[in-house]
Amino acid sequence: MANYYKKVVEMLGENLASFLELSKKLLIDWKVEPKKLLHFLQNIRKDDLIGLMEGTHEVREIPKKDTQKEEYTSEVVNSDYTYPKEYKGPKCILDQIDMVEKQWGLDGSYARSFVANIKKLPDGAEGWFAIPKVSAVAKKHFPAITNPAEQYCEAVKLVLTKLAESRSFTNYREGEIIPEKLRVHLRTAGFIEELENQQQGDILIIAVQYGMRHRGKSIRRARETFASNEFGLGSFALGCMALIHPERYVRWEELDTDCPGDEFSPDADGVFSKSPIFIFYVRLKFDTNGVSDANDNYGSASAFVPQV
């Protein structure tokens, strides 16, 4: 532990006092939970962290709910797109757990116990979905990788590989799924951590809407209009859902899916101006869109934490 602190001091040098002041602001003034602060520090680029401490970068406080609604209001278009007729909604949740077990080699026993005592579906959600935990996938498939940001990117690459093995598929971001370009949105990371603390085992059971709720909105407008218990889904979760529900992506005139739970930096320069998408045209495709783009044939998929 002493060596760890020595490395921190050596890396930060004169910025150590500023780092402590930044941590104090986040923990005390803004009441950020220690685990969320840890996730933030694990995923932030060194240059961005130094910028925050030197004042050249800014951390904006999350706006109050009533002021959030006024952001990016022009980034909305009318949409009549819906899910393809082949998609009838989520499969039986127990069947989903069985499929996740087989696809990923994981243990679904706790998930089955959780389902037996499942609560009422939260308002806004369309149904229950089973997705593997990234940590469980990492332990099973790439145990040597321990950094959470790297684990996430490896998990995304693995689910896209599985999609390519299961159907006609194109990944337009081949070679670009790296921590410098792809990361989990902070809001999503916090809610996923909360759900994982509530649910033991390898598989998460989440309440989801598949895009209809936010169709026609830009990704950043959708994020601003999330309910207090709502968060965006990312590439990994949506890729896993597509594996179990291939019929969700079968028509060019369907409502396709934005991934507001992820952020993408095209130039790996700390500017995360895009987010991933899943789209069907001739085949299923994985790509990115600008977070300010409002398209009538896209909707942001999101999940909900049951409110007590």
Blueprint of the fold:
Blueprint (H helix, E strand, L loop, with lengths): L1 H11 L3 H14 L4 H10 L2 H9 L10 H4 L24 H12 L4 H8 L10 E6 L1 H8 L6 H19 L2 E3 L10 E3 L1 H13 L4 E7 L9 H6 L5 E3 L2 H10 L11 E3 L3 E3 L9 E8 L1 E8 L7 E3 L1 E3 L4
3D architecture notes:
With 308 residues, this protein is α+β, with helices and mostly antiparallel strands. It has 2 domains: 2-54, no CATH class; 93-304, no CATH class. It is built from 12 helices and 11 strands. Strand 8 (274-281) and strand 9 (283-290) form a beta hairpin. Helix 9 (148-166) runs parallel beside helix 12. The chain is globular, with a radius of gyration of 20 Å.
- The unreliable regions are 1-7, 60-68
| Protein structure class | alpha+beta
What is the ordering of alpha helices and beta strands?
HHHHHHHEHHEEHEHEHEEEEEE
Mean pLDDT: 87
Give the strand line-up of the largest sheet. 2-9-8-6-10
User: How many domains make up the coordinates?
Assistant: 2
Largest sheet report: 5 strands, mixed
Name the descriptors.
2 domains, globular, 12 helices, 308 residues, five-stranded mixed beta sheet, four-stranded antiparallel beta sheet
Offer a quick outline of the entry.
Helices cover 40% and strands 16% of the residues.
